[in-house]
Amino acid sequence: MVHPRGPMTRPCGLAKYESLCCLRIGLVTVVSNYSCCRSTDRGIVSPSVPQNRYPMRLSTSTEWWHRKEVLRAALTLSVAACCASAMLGQMRQFSNRTEGTWSPHASSDMDLIGLSRSSIDFKPNSTLKVRFFLPFSTASEPNYVNTVVLESREIIPLRNYYMRSIPSQWQPGRWNEFGPWPTTDVLDPLGIRASDLALTASYSDATGGRVYMPVTLSTSTAASDSESYVFQFDTAWPIHSLEKRLTAPDGHTELLPIIACQANPLCILYDADSSHAFTIDMTNRPEGLYRLHLTGHVPNNSFTPELFVTFYHHPS
Questions:
Q1: For residues 15 and 113, what is the distance between their CA atoms, to the nearest angstrom?
Q2: DSSP state, 206?
Q3: Which is the most buried residue in 22, 126, 207, 211, by most CB within 10 A?
Q4: d(CA 97, CA 102)
Q5: How is the chain split into domains, by residue range?
Q6: Exposed e or buried b per residue across 52-79, where buried means at least 16 C-beta atoms within 10 angstroms of its C-beta
Q7: What is the rounded distance in angstroms from the CA atom of residue 312 to the CA atom of residue 137?
Q8: pLDDT averaged over 10-residue windows placed end to end, the chain, 316 residues
Q9: Are 214 and 229 in contact (CB under 8 A)?
């Protein structure tokens, strides 16, 4: 099947590490195919240089100066990516989780990467804990408690950080806590800050789909559980406007306020190949399973990327 926007290709860039190829030149490492990047690509950073513009044989000092500047720019923008590539697959096993760096998987048109009850905030040298409510569920697989998993990743995968919990004795029908999660093990050595992270907790339903439970991350001082949920997602498409439809436990569907770029019909609200966030206030809504349907509208394109998220709301 041909993808709606043609072959599944993306502009090369630091965000996805799809076209980076490290080349050793003397004592420096650069991206050898920097010419494939376009300066117009959003969120990526490499000068647009035709491959035959600077021949390997340098005849003038001017050409040498230009070539040196191109290499310097490529080095500056690729060193983080090359270093991260060298660290791929370095996952460490801890008593309650695996954590480290790994090769990023191919993403869909839209992906949920975080669902939390409060903003993620911590300082280096902290011990983190994650709180979530696990409901009783008759619609899930019989051993759904064993499918509970917490995942954390970078909002922008510069280091390809990833954390995944291991099975634990979670308690249905009550608040559960994941921890301890010391930042000194992996987060601090990698230089990852609170603002770099997204976090989810979920379990499998009877169809194999995931049901998300909004999380609260805190340190030794407990954070308050807000009912204004923060949804974090990434998109492979440039989105002008985003429709949000929320279906309640009783089956009633509500069209939430549409988010749109107001400058002109072709302006971009959410850049492609990047991550974004929005909030939904769940105050005074009944407890139960909700289904969120996101529909993105792409300028000058009839294709509409979609994302379906099932989550459980438990009042604070």
A1: 15
A2: T
A3: 211
A4: 14
A5: 22-86, 91-313
A6: eebeeeeeeeeeeeebeebbebbbebbe
A7: 10
A8: 39 35 32 33 36 40 50 50 51 96 78 91 92 83 87 93 95 95 97 95 91 91 76 96 97 96 94 93 95 97 96 93
A9: yes
> 232 and 155 in contact (C-beta within 8 Å)?
yes
Structure tokens at 289: 């399973």
Phi then psi for residue 74, to 5 deg, are -65, -40
Structure tokens at 156: 């922008």
142/139 Cα distance (integer angstroms): 9
CB 201 within 8 A of CB 130: yes
Rounded Cα distance between 306 and 250, Å, is 23
Q: Note whether 232 and 196 are within 8 A (CB).
A: no
Taking the C-alpha atoms of residue 37 and residue 43, their distance in angstroms, rounded to an integer, is 11
Instruction: Report the distance separating Cα 31 and Cα 162, nearest Å.
Output: 25
Alpha carbon distance 269, 310 (integer Å): 24
The distance in angstroms from the start CA to the end CA of the chain is: 45
Which residues 6+ apart lie within 8 Å of 264 measured at CB? none
**What are the structure tokens assigned to 278, written together?**
């929005």
At residue 144, what is the residue type? Answer: Y
The single-letter code of the amino acid at 61 is S
Task: Report pLDDT for 316.
Answer: 81
DSSP letter at 36?
Answer: G
- With beta carbons less than 8 A apart as the criterion, state whether 278 and 242 touch: yes
pLDDT of residue 33: 34
